[in-house]
Amino acid sequence: MSENDKKDAVSLGDGRYKCPCGYIYDPEKGDPKQNIPAGTKFEELPEDWKCPRCKRKKEKFKAL
Questions:
Q1: 3-class SS at 50?
Q2: pTM for the complete prediction?
Q3: 14: alpha, beta or left, given left = phi > 0 and alpha = psi -120 to 50?
Q4: Which of 19, 38, 45, 58 is a Cys-bridge partner for 30, taking CB atoms 3.0 to 4.6 Å apart?
Q5: d(CA 28, CA 40)
Q6: How many other C-beta atoms lie within 10 A of the C-beta of residue 38?
Q7: What tens digit of pLDDT does each residue of 4-63 get?
Q8: From residue 60, how far is each of 9, 14, 23 by CA, in Å?
Q9: Cα-based torsion angle of the residue sequence 22, 27, 32, 36 in order, rounded to the nearest 10 degrees
Q10: What does the CA dihedral 53, 57, 58, 59 come to, rounded to 10 degrees?
Q11: Distance CA 54, CA 28 (A)
């Protein structure tokens, strides 16, 4: 992720991020399908993490 993408990934809301496909990453739930535990902030997801629904990269997500 580039420095600009990292800046864009900062959320001022509740930490949820939405993929263009409609999937919402909620840090309170994590991503059990990819072994991401509840409480994991979006910014702490591995660089190679992708949307579990459509496989888009993290930088495609927008903060809610």
A1: strand
A2: 0.78
A3: alpha
A4: 38
A5: 7
A6: 11
A7: 444 455 545 789 999 999 999 999 999 999 999 999 999 999 999 999 999 999 999 999
A8: 9, 18, 11
A9: 120
A10: -130
A11: 21
